[in-house]
């Protein structure tokens, strides 16, 4: 056709030459030129040579001419046509994410695909048998489909739920809904009804859940309820814990429109969905929606973009919405749907503050807290003691000379851990370094080294001694390291084989504990006075969630929060179960301080062996706008001075960061688009590792 003629004339290549711009997962900006001897559609996967390596790439454009001299442009090795090209709307989502988060397109597209689809080796050799998709299909053809599961009865909706379901059913195009309701108010039931309606109209639903909430229980409920409505095989689950083959199979069923409800963690945001009709983001405030490496995206934010692009409604559900979301709900940009009461007869727990300033604590526990555990034990009810600090003690100390167990590679203490077999160990939670506890102080030889403070292990030890007849369990990242061990521990709690449960934030989410009568919260103040401006927000939502574990059935559950600062607004609001009051207060503070959601931020972080090297690079980056006054948006953007990170050294690398801020998102975006591409050319950039994060959650 016309295009081929132009290419042939202008490049001297043959009329059969088709130029391709290919996205590759390499840390270089831009796309890469290749040629093919037949037309290849945008969104097609291809195998190409890149340097000495063979890689799978995705065709992102089919230009009339390459950017390189045509003679230097290599031919692709193969077109992978075992799957239709990635759809235009999906490519558009990837392009938006790459542009918004300032990453090369290939670093967005390729990691979003199941592993098997981006490995050339999967298509090579005698055993490849037509590639991974052909193998999945052959396996699926042999498998018999199971019978539909025994039928789960749906409860009658209460008026608030009914209103929410009706409002969602009436939504015809893009609209952002905030489903605001405490734990147990029946949000999941609303998602199910809204999903059923969409599924019956032959469209797909994407349900995003936080990492830890994707339990077999939830999967079971969804499968039983929804497969009844739309048939077996309609539910697909996607998360990072799946084996490669399982993930590919679920992904293919979604792409082909066979799976109708796709439930998954943040990575499921990137599954192609030909018939998308509704997106639900459960616990939308949860930090696990933010990816913390590579493409540092917010799955919640991208989900809203995707819903807008596909013109479908989106529901953000939470008992404690992020202040960003709440701000939009209050201003009317999002539509708020409230579920003010618990759905079942269960009454909310009574929250009390234990003022520790005038109390004598025993291993960190107030007499009231100990008495409450005793009381619940006598009644045959469970207690949960929440302490967000794992290990035995945060530091080991020599009282004779003041020595502390610091990590040699990090500016942090090594945490004392009680080992299973190997005795006590010191572990660094930053770099993973570990060593045996020294028999004596390395500085003065004192043999009486003492643990300072306490973590979950020490608390468990104390409770075991204090309540010798109680059955104890501990749930934290250490006790659940082996695959399946978390589920086993939770199953014990559900089966009433545990009287006292000690846990970190891992216990706060996703699980209903039917016999839990008491929750005690230790050391919450540590979170309150963190350097991070989001700390009170996070504390409120975490404690609301922990409190919500109690009394899911019945009444009379108690929550005791130990604090030396009972007058703090966060705690006062918790006692009143008053998220809205807390949010109003916190938003006022943010507004007067000029912080998100009233400002928009990006963070440039650099690391190097020497702090000065990192700071030099960041200073060059800071001065760029001065040197280049033509940078768009610069006059509306504030670039702060470089500062060391709070934990400045991790694994022998010193870290510093530079904050970029604006009260206008478009101005910040315009600035980043011009500024970010210049960073790699700064003289100091070769001597540091750096990354840019847009909308950082932690500063
Ligand atoms: P949330 O997701 O808000 O925490 P769930 O949807 O899990 O709440 O509901 C909490 C409990 O209440 C569940 O056991 C659920 O089956 C039950 N439930 C939900 N809606 C109703 C209703 N309308 N009537 C009775 N029970 C309900
Ligand atoms: Zn000493
Ligand atoms: Zn370390």
Automatic annotation (TrEMBL):
<feature type="binding site">
    <location>
        <position position="441"/>
    </location>
    <ligand>
        <name>Zn(2+) 1</name>
    </ligand>
</feature>
<dbReference type="InterPro" id="IPR014001">
    <property type="entry name" value="Helicase_ATP-bd"/>
</dbReference>
<keyword id="KW-0235">DNA replication</keyword>
<feature type="binding site">
    <location>
        <position position="401"/>
    </location>
    <ligand>
        <name>Zn(2+) 1</name>
    </ligand>
</feature>
<feature type="binding site">
    <location>
        <position position="398"/>
    </location>
    <ligand>
        <name>Zn(2+) 1</name>
    </ligand>
</feature>
<dbReference type="InterPro" id="IPR005259">
    <property type="entry name" value="PriA"/>
</dbReference>
<keyword id="KW-0067">ATP-binding</keyword>
<dbReference type="GO" id="GO:0008270">
    <property type="term" value="F:zinc ion binding"/>
</dbReference>
<protein>
    <recommendedName>
        <fullName>Replication restart protein PriA</fullName>
        <ecNumber>5.6.2.4</ecNumber>
    </recommendedName>
</protein>
<keyword id="KW-0347">Helicase</keyword>
<feature type="binding site">
    <location>
        <position position="428"/>
    </location>
    <ligand>
        <name>Zn(2+) 2</name>
    </ligand>
</feature>
<dbReference type="InterPro" id="IPR041236">
    <property type="entry name" value="PriA_C"/>
</dbReference>
<keyword id="KW-0639">Primosome</keyword>
<comment type="subunit">
    <text>Component of the replication restart primosome.</text>
</comment>
<feature type="binding site">
    <location>
        <position position="410"/>
    </location>
    <ligand>
        <name>Zn(2+) 2</name>
    </ligand>
</feature>
<dbReference type="GO" id="GO:0005524">
    <property type="term" value="F:ATP binding"/>
</dbReference>
<comment type="similarity">
    <text>Belongs to the helicase family. PriA subfamily.</text>
</comment>
<dbReference type="Pfam" id="PF00270">
    <property type="entry name" value="DEAD"/>
</dbReference>
<dbReference type="Pfam" id="PF17764">
    <property type="entry name" value="PriA_3primeBD"/>
</dbReference>
<feature type="binding site">
    <location>
        <position position="444"/>
    </location>
    <ligand>
        <name>Zn(2+) 1</name>
    </ligand>
</feature>
<dbReference type="Pfam" id="PF18319">
    <property type="entry name" value="Zn_ribbon_PriA"/>
</dbReference>
<keyword id="KW-0413">Isomerase</keyword>
<dbReference type="GO" id="GO:0006269">
    <property type="term" value="P:DNA replication, synthesis of primer"/>
</dbReference>
<dbReference type="GO" id="GO:1990077">
    <property type="term" value="C:primosome complex"/>
</dbReference>
<keyword id="KW-0547">Nucleotide-binding</keyword>
<dbReference type="GO" id="GO:0043138">
    <property type="term" value="F:3'-5' DNA helicase activity"/>
</dbReference>
<dbReference type="InterPro" id="IPR042115">
    <property type="entry name" value="PriA_3primeBD_sf"/>
</dbReference>
<keyword id="KW-0378">Hydrolase</keyword>
<comment type="function">
    <text>Initiates the restart of stalled replication forks, which reloads the replicative helicase on sites other than the origin of replication. Recognizes and binds to abandoned replication forks and remodels them to uncover a helicase loading site. Promotes assembly of the primosome at these replication forks.</text>
</comment>
<dbReference type="GO" id="GO:0006310">
    <property type="term" value="P:DNA recombination"/>
</dbReference>
<dbReference type="InterPro" id="IPR041222">
    <property type="entry name" value="PriA_3primeBD"/>
</dbReference>
<dbReference type="GO" id="GO:0006270">
    <property type="term" value="P:DNA replication initiation"/>
</dbReference>
<dbReference type="GO" id="GO:0016887">
    <property type="term" value="F:ATP hydrolysis activity"/>
</dbReference>
<dbReference type="InterPro" id="IPR001650">
    <property type="entry name" value="Helicase_C-like"/>
</dbReference>
<keyword id="KW-0479">Metal-binding</keyword>
<keyword id="KW-0862">Zinc</keyword>
<feature type="domain" description="Helicase ATP-binding">
    <location>
        <begin position="168"/>
        <end position="339"/>
    </location>
</feature>
<feature type="binding site">
    <location>
        <position position="407"/>
    </location>
    <ligand>
        <name>Zn(2+) 2</name>
    </ligand>
</feature>
<dbReference type="GO" id="GO:0003677">
    <property type="term" value="F:DNA binding"/>
</dbReference>
<feature type="binding site">
    <location>
        <position position="431"/>
    </location>
    <ligand>
        <name>Zn(2+) 2</name>
    </ligand>
</feature>
<dbReference type="Pfam" id="PF00271">
    <property type="entry name" value="Helicase_C"/>
</dbReference>
<keyword id="KW-0238">DNA-binding</keyword>
């Amino acid at each position: 056709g016309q295009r081929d003629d132009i290419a042939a004339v202008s490049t001297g290549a043959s009329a059969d030459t088709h130029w391709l711009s290919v996205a590759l997962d390499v840390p270089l900006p831009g796309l890469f030129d290749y040629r093919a001897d037949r037309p290849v559609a945008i969104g097609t996967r291809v195998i190409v040579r890149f340097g000495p390596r063979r890689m799978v790439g995705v065709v992102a454009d089919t230009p009339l001419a390459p950017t390189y001299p045509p003679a230097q442009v290599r031919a692709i090795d193969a077109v992978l046509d075992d799957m239709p090209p990635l759809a235009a709307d999906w490519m558009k989502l990837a392009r938006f994410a790459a542009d918004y988060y300032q990453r090369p397109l290939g670093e967005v597209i390729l990691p979003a695909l199941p592993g098997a689809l981006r490995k050339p080796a999967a298509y090579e050799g005698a055993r490849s048998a037509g590639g991974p998709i052909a193998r999945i299909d052959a396996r699926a053809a042999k498998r018999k489909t199971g019978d539909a599961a025994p039928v789960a009865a749906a409860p009658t909706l209460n008026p608030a739920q009914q209103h929410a379901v009706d409002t969602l059913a009436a939504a015809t195009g893009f609209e952002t809904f905030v489903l605001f309701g405490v734990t147990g108010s029946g949000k999941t039931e609303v998602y199910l009804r809204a999903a059923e309606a969409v599924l019956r109209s032959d469209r797909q639903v994407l349900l995003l859940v936080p990492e830890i909430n994707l339990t077999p229980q939830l999967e079971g409920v969804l499968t039983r309820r929804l497969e009844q409505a739309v048939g077996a095989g309609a539910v697909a689950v996607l998360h990072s814990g799946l084996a490669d083959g399982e993930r590919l199979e679920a992904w293919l069923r979604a792409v082909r429109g066979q799976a109708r409800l796709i439930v998954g963690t943040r990575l499921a945001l990137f599954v192609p969905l030909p018939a998308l009709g509704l997106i639900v983001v459960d616990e939308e405030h949860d930090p696990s929606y933010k990816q913390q490496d590579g493409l540092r995206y917010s799955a919640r934010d991208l989900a809203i973009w995707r819903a807008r692009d596909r013109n479908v409604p989106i529901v953000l559900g939470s008992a404690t919405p992020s202040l960003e979301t709440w701000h939009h709900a209050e201003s009317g940009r999002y539509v708020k749907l409230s579920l003010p009461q618990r759905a079942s007869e269960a009454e909310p727990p009574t929250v009390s503050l234990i003022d520790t300033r005038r109390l004598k604590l025993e291993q960190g526990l107030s007499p009231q807290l100990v008495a409450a555990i005793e009381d619940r034990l006598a009644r045959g009810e469970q207690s949960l003691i929440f302490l967000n600090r794992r290990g035995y003690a945060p530091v080991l100390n020599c009282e004779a000379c003041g020595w502390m167990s610091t990590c040699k590679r990090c500016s942090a203490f090594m945490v004392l851990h009680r080992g299973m077999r190997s005795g006590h160990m010191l572990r660094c939670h930053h770099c993973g370094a570990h060593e045996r506890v020294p028999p004596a102080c390395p500085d003065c030889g004192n043999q009486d080294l003492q643990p300072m403070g306490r973590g979950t292990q020490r608390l468990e030890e104390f409770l075991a001694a204090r309540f010798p007849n109680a059955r104890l369990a501990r749930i934290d990242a250490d006790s659940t390291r082996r695959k399946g061990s978390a589920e086993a521990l939770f199953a014990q709690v559900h089966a009433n084989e545990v009287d006292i449960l000690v846990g970190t934030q891992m216990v706060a989410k996703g699980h209903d504990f039917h016999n839990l009568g008491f929750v005690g919260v230790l050391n919450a103040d540590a979170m309150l006075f963190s350097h991070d401006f989001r700390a009170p927000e996070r504390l409120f939502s975490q404690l609301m969630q922990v409190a919500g574990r109690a009394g899911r059935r019945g009444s009379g559950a108690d929550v005791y929060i130990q604090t030396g600062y009972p007058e703090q607004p966060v705690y006062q609001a918790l006692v009143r179960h008053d998220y809205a009051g807390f949010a109003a207060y916190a938003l006022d503070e943010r507004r007067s301080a000029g912080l998100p959601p009233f400002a928009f931020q990006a963070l440039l972080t650099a690391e190097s062996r020497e702090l000065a090297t990192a700071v030099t690079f960041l200073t060059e980056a800071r001065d760029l706008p001065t040197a280049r006054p033509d940078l768009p948006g610069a006059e509306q953007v504030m670039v702060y001075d470089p500062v060391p990170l709070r934990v400045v050294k991790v694994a022998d690398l010193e870290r510093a960061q530079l904050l970029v801020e604006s009260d206008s998102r478009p101005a910040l975006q315009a600035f980043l688009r011009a500024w970010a591409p210049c960073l790699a050319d700064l003289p100091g950039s070769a001597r540091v590792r750096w990354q840019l994060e847009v909308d950082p959650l932690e500063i």
